[in-house]
Amino acid sequence: MNAAASAPSLGAAARYWLTLGWINFGGPAGQIAIMHRDLVEKRAWIEEQRFLHALNYCMLLPGPEAMQLAIYIGWLLHGTTGGVIAGIGFFLPAVLILLLLSWLYASYGHVGPIAGVLAGFKPVVVAIVLFAVVTVGRRALERAEHFVLAAAAFLAIQFLDVPFPLIVLGAIGIGLLMGFVRRDAPATSAGVASSSPIAGNVARPARPLRLIALWIALTVIPLGVLAMIQAPRVLKPVYLFFTQAAFVTFGGAYAVLAYVNQAAVQQFGWLTAAQAVDGFALAETTPGPLIMVLQFVGFMAGWNAPEPWTPAAAALSAALLTSYATFVPSFFFILLGAPYIERLRGVRWLDAALAAVTAAVVGVILNLGVVFGTAVLWNRGEGNAFALAVAGLAALALWRGVKVSWLVLGGGFAGLLAHLPGWI
């Protein structure tokens, strides 16, 4: 690996980001690994310390951390233009692919072979979520108090229906307290100076007041458009909900889906728990951020309540509004915060707050696994032998390092084969 990075041309970077959007399978861990391999090891566009520092900042933010990392690196390389190109290239292919898959699901999801494929997807998703509890827990649960936080978060959302944002806020408060109490905690390595020639971008604020005004305008414009047209009633609450969700979706897609399941399924009734599982499975088969599952939720909300439009028109509009509300804030989180983030490198209390949030997220993900497992592995109080077998094999394959995208496709193929003779 080169000691210092060399910045590429804007055209070369744009080609990379647009290509990455079609191949970035594997969820945030896989996407971050792809970018590290390509940008640090192979192309040497950014050095190791700068990459890790950017990643640490993105981990603090709500929303898709891998996409935000791409925006951050794009900004480091070519300023605001580079960040915008990187972000759009990262998620646009997934938007297009999932729109097609969502339409096929809503139109034909309960018909013949498609129902069998979905029946194979679902237990794989259960295994993925439960495996995430183990993998995230290994990283997050470093101290005894972290285990307590994870257990408390699970009990709060599972039995007390405490909203996910309150769990996050509580974890932040506890983490800050822990950070001030544990003054003997070791300093992080984030404060190591960088020799990268692109690091100078961090010192240049990008006119924050202008960016904030643009952010507000881009947030309000869709509401103005909806007020001017005779749109389905569901579009406004969908947009408002996912606009709000973009600020509280800490912990990645697994934690986000737990929050959305609590609100969109139980509170608003936009879709069923089984449909939420199906949407997660579809999102696992696409490139791009795993948080794309939210677009599926929006799509189904519009499809199920389209009046006075057609289901397809309402679903398309709701899906695009959902993705717009979900991804636009990520650009501003990076473009506003990145110029100042150098000042926070190695701050102990900030590290402690992040560790507490991550620990609480483990409990939230466990809740999601319980919800999905109950819906998929048991049917009317009885175990589903096929689903239990597929989930068990998927868990074993995950432990052996098989890629998630291959597992989901394999589960779908198993469901199709099992459906043909009428087994399920």
Describe the structure.
It is a single chain. By secondary structure, the chain is mostly helical. It has one domain. Helices cover 73% and strands 1% of the residues. The chain contains 16 helices and two strands. It has a two-stranded antiparallel sheet with strand order 1-2. Helix 2 packs across helix 4, helix 3 crosses helix 4 and helix 12 runs antiparallel to helix 13. It is globular and about 60 Å long. The termini are far apart. The N terminus is likely disordered.
In short, what is this structure?
The chain has 424 residues and is mostly helical.
The overall average pLDDT, rounded, is 82
Q: What class would the helix/strand composition place it in? A: mainly alpha
Going across the biggest sheet, name each strand in turn.
1-2
| Strand/helix succession | HHHHHHHHHHHHHHEEHH
Provide the fold topology:
Elements: H1 10-23, H2 27-42, H3 48-60, H4 65-108, H5 112-140, H6 144-159, H7 164-181, H8 208-228, H9 235-245, H10 252-267, H11 273-284, H12 293-304, H13 311-337, H14 348-377, E1 378-379, E2 382-383, H15 385-399, H16 404-419
Antiparallel strand pairs: 1-2
Helix pairs in contact: 1-4, 2-4, 3-4, 4-12, 4-13, 5-11, 5-14, 5-15, 5-16, 6-14, 7-14, 8-9, 8-13, 9-13, 10-14, 11-12, 12-13, 15-16
